[in-house]
Amino acid sequence: MFARVAKMRFMPSVARRLHLPPTESDIPTCSDLPRADFLQNAQLAEILFITPPDDLLLTVIFNPATVSQKAWIVYVDFILLTLLQHDPSQADTVKSLKKNTDKALNDFRIFLEPSEINIQALMLLGCHGEQYASPNLSWMLVGHACRQAQALGLHKIERGSYTQQQRQLALFWSLFSVDKSCSLAFGRPMLLPTASYENVPLPDFQYLLGYHPHKAQPVPTPSGSHTSTFGAHFFIQVMHLAKLTGAVLNTLSSQGTATDSETLAATLQSWDATTNEAKMTIGVRAMRFQYLHILILLLRKIPNSKDRRVQAARDAIMLLPGLISNYNHVYNGLVWQLLYYPFTPFFTLFCHMIDHPSAPTTQQDLDLLTTTAKYFNSMKQLGSLPAVSYKLEKTALVFCNLAIFVTSGEYSKDDAQDLQSTATATSLEDFAIVECSSEERIHFVDASSSEAGSASFTDAFMAYLQDQDYSAQSGVDNTDIENLLSCLDSEGPSPHKRKRSFENTMDWFSWDTYYYCKDE
């Protein structure tokens, strides 16, 4: 009974979001699929994931309707999609693979019956699937994977062979890290509490020597083959950072003292000093970017730390050009780290500029805001989640233009009242605001002290944009702009705000529902 109810409540909503064809039969894929390429790529992740045996792989590819565990279809077809999606000659195959994946996701057992293959399929989609990269879907997929890991006791090493135990530990810790990253990105509680799992052992270093997704075979050297240890060290450091992230999340959601936060910040900086000694590969840059993102959030709990917070934001944004990547890159971070994390340093710097529009660093900071918008443009051009990157670029550009407006002299407090009156007179008539409840509007958390008096320059900015015909030039209409600027409401109770798990994170779920999906 519960399964039927859950299917009725959950799966149709997913189907609507994914535009699934609910009555289509499984479509066999064509016979020239790169089976060898699939196996080669799947083997790169064998320290985490189970690779299907040959007979099951062939069944998934050529007769998917007979596969009982639909998660295998999701897992295999998603990897094949990654391999084939940019090959024009495989367009029909890609279409079939997408249909098979969508139909497989209509099987509620993937979400309700805990199994290792279900976990790895949900985790793969949630972390790397462009079609599933929206905040709501990412959160749901990762959430189901975490609950299944808890139900299975994935972290326990009491059964199975040594290899099975180590693989399950590696999968658990990877999911643990994903959970912390997801919580930081979207301002939601952890699903795998750090206190419950901090004493679970990491996989053995010797086992982790198999973690080198950049190269499947040992590196040949004059003295013989050599197995790189970078992947093993990288994995371990990422998990140490995940544990620290959990501690930070606990601090952000509690009433801890400034001393506790200072101690944790010192531990974070010690971790950074250790890892920053390594060569600055994209993986290390991605880890450092995560570190700065966590540090910015933590410093909000420490009095008189604004200068440190702003500098950390500058340092983080300066890393963005080195993080531009797509599915061809390894160690480049999870999808929401690449897409949503950049807005934490972005808004930190933006709010600093609104508070100090005439500071000597204004031009440098404006350039950094522009760097963020260019980052999303470059991600789009590289084919990395282009639809999401495009809308995030437009979101960043709205705030870039507001920062330019406030700091350039177009807005002055002396004539703010006149501008506000003009804006009010025109906006009510000309700006078509969607009528909906306060819980349905796109809104954000308190944006530091820069909210004070922000209503006047927000209205003035809207009037200025109308004069400049900005919506025609940018493709962003006035309703979008007003919704995105709603984070600048004045302090105090407001129908345009939703309480977040911790301060100053964008309400990505409202953004997702009323902006990301707007044109779908």
UniProtKB/TrEMBL annotation:
Gene Ontology process terms (BP): DNA-templated transcription
SMART domains hit by this protein: Fungal_trans (SM00906)
Pfam hit, one: Fungal_trans
Record keywords, A-Z: Nucleus
Domain Xylanolytic transcriptional activator regulatory, residue spans: 138-209
Alphabetized InterPro entries for the sequence: AtrR-like (IPR050987), XnlR_reg_dom (IPR007219)
Single GO MF annotation: DNA-binding transcription factor activity
Protein known as: Xylanolytic transcriptional activator regulatory domain-containing protein
Organism name: Trichoderma parareesei
